Each structure stands twice: as C-alpha cells, then as structure tokens.
Amino acid sequence: MPRKISPFDDIPLLELIVNTGIAEAINQQLGGLKGNKNAIAETIENNVRSKIIKEHLNDPEFYEKMSALLDEIIAARKAKAIEYEEFLKRIAELAKKVQAGKGDDTPVKLDTPGKRALYNNLKVWTNPDGAAEKPAEYTVSGASVLDLALTIDETIKQVRPNDWRGVQAREQVIKAALYKILQDVEEVERLFKIIFEHKGEY
User: Fold this and answer.
1) What region, left, alpha or beta, does residue 159 occupy, with left being phi > 0 and alpha being psi -120 to 50 degrees?
2) What is the DSSP letter of 102?
3) Counting beta carbons within 10 angstroms of the beta carbon of residue 77, is it exposed (0 to 12), middle (13 to 18) or buried (19 or more)?
4) 141 has a pLDDT exceeding 60
C-alpha cells in the first residue's frame, strides 16, 4: 500500500499547481520521483490530459484547443526542443487554463462555465474558417458572438421546464427556443448537447 507522502495527497495535482505553483506542487505530490524529470513530466501531462478528457463534453471547442496545446508541449519536450524549466513553465500555464476552464482572453461577462461553452462553440459556427479576427467581431445577423451567447444563456434559463433532461417533449422546448435564435437545425443539436452537460446551470 502506498504511504501517504503529504497532506496534499488528496488535492488534485492541477489544483495544487494553480494554488501553490508548479515547483511546490512537484515537491508536495511527486517527491517520490525526485530527479526523474521524465516521470515527473509524464505524470503532470497525464493529469492535464485526464482533466481535458473529463471536461471535454462541457466545452468541446475549448478543450480541443487545450488538447492540441498539450500535444505541442509534449512533442517539444520529447524532441528536446525546450528545456525542462521551459516545459514546466508552459505546462503550468496550460494547467491553469484547463483547471479554470477558460483562457486569459475570456470576456468578463462570461462568468459561468455554461456561458463560456456557448461562446467558445458559437465562435466556431460563426467563423468556420478560423479567420484571425477579434472574437467580438464575429457576428450573426448583426449580433456579436458574445451577445449571442448571453442571449442564449438567458433564453434557456427563461424557457427550460423543470427536470427537462431525458424528457423529449421538455427537451423540445429548449431546442425550439434555440432554433428561434440560430435558425440552424444542426447547430441547435450541437449546442443542445453542450447545454445538456451543464447540469448545475441549465
């Protein structure tokens, strides 16, 4: 049976990285791997990866980006294209975003996971080619994606019936409200799946 290393054992590694910094997190939780930089790197990478997989359905667009960034960092480390210290710096920055479920450039009004997920996933729909514009400039019939995300968030909260998950007639109420705004059946289905995952919010 593994012995308890520290009182931090029960705190997820990513949370520890965010709260104490990566050096302290390694000390507290990965002390047993002292000096084995590869083992430490792989443990942190696996922790970030499992958080991404766990949260993916909540905000597919955001977590796919985070997954691609993680792949880049891992590839650079394995190719020895970056020093270990640089690896730690980059993986710590990524861990913070993954743990928070948002990037540094997230608009302030997106103050819940649901709003952020709507915004991130609407951006793809309104800007399918990924043109390098400012997100605020993406528009749908004159409304910015930010306004659109906030409108959808507000609308769902107004129209959702109680205990709507898994009850087709009640789910249709939400889909109909989404369709009024988006006028796109495929997009309604795609966003509905994301809304479905945000159980505490919608």
Assistant:
1) alpha
2) S
3) buried
4) no
Whole-angstrom distance, CA of residue 59 vs CA of residue 114: 8
Please give the Cα distance from 13 to 40 (Å, whole number).
12
List, for residues 150-190, the tens digit of each pLDDT value: 999 999 999 999 999 999 999 999 999 999 999 999 999 99
Would you state the structure tokens that stand for residue 49, as one six-digit string? 């990866």
Residue 107 confidence (pLDDT) above 90 = yes
Own/partner long-range contacts of 160-166 (Cβ < 8 Å, ≥24 apart) = 160/202, 165/196, 165/199
In terms of DSSP bridges, do strands 143-144 and 139-140 run parallel, antiparallel, or are they unpaired?
antiparallel
CA distance 145 to 124: 10
* Sequence ranges of the domains in the chain: 9-100, 113-197
Q: What is d(CA 94, CA 51) in angstroms, rounded to the nearest whole number?
A: 11
Alpha-carbon gap, residue 122 to 42, rounded angstroms: 33
What count of Cα atoms within 13 Å lies in the side-chain half-sphere of residue 25?
24
